[in-house]
Design brief:
The model has no long low-confidence stretch (mean pLDDT 82). A hairpin with a 5-residue loop joins strand 6 and strand 7. The chain has seven helices and 13 strands. With 278 residues, it is an alpha+beta fold. The protein has two domains: 70 residues, Type Iii Antifreeze Protein Isoform Hplc 12 (Alpha-Beta Complex), CATH 3.90.1210; 142 residues, no CATH class.
Length: 278
Amino acid sequence: MGNIVTTIKRFLGNKNTVTIIGVILGILVLYIGYNYRVNQATTPVTVPYAKEEISSRTLITSDMIGYMEVSSSVVNSSPNLITNASQLINNYVAFGTTIPANSLFYNSQILTSDEMPDSAFANIPDGYTIYSLGVNLHTTYGNSIYPGNYIDLYFKGIDDTQKIMFGKLIESIEVLAVKDSNGNHVFETTVESRTPAELLFAVPNDMYDLLMKAGYISGSSIEIIPVPRNASYSANPGDTVVSSDQIRDFILSKSATIAQNTTTTTPNNQTNNTTTTN
């Protein structure tokens, strides 16, 4: 037994032996590490793909989705790649985007229902009305007013003494949509250039009446002018309010107040009670 121990000690005490053992261990470590990395990169991952071409604004359903295996390296090199069908089903293809058949899905191609341009219209509070302001490329500052921006609306007109009136009429109003003359959303595609024709807002009913009355005043060169603000103005919006009593009173002085009839019908249509409000 002693001879065996002595032999092993001599063997390990030989510098050449230690060097050879070190080289062999180094090669083993490199080999094992290399195989581990290769296996990691080539391990298949199941991801969804489009079974058919899916066009812009289309609601994605489960029957449009197939599944394929790709290597882990594809997933790791594409952080925007969608790997779970739950991120797709009941969501929409983004504006101006077409997903080809047999293509993988990416986050930039998909929008939720809340992110769709007209979804804001469905969430308008009671007592609010959509107001459309006619615009062009010049009045939108070279197409620089976007949905979600908070802007101000200025008033330009001529008073009864033929003096120019100019000032802020509405403060901190949110742009819901920007559309061209065909009703298409201006910013839904980068494939074609679209010219803005209207800005859409949701305003309280009394503010809607005021803006519409301003637009119908004749002979005074009335203009409602959109004025964009900086990013912090949109990030920290204030209340949407009428900024000038003087301008409001001028508009109202040029229009009549029409009484609104409200009819209340009891069950079985037995009695109709009509009230008049101003």
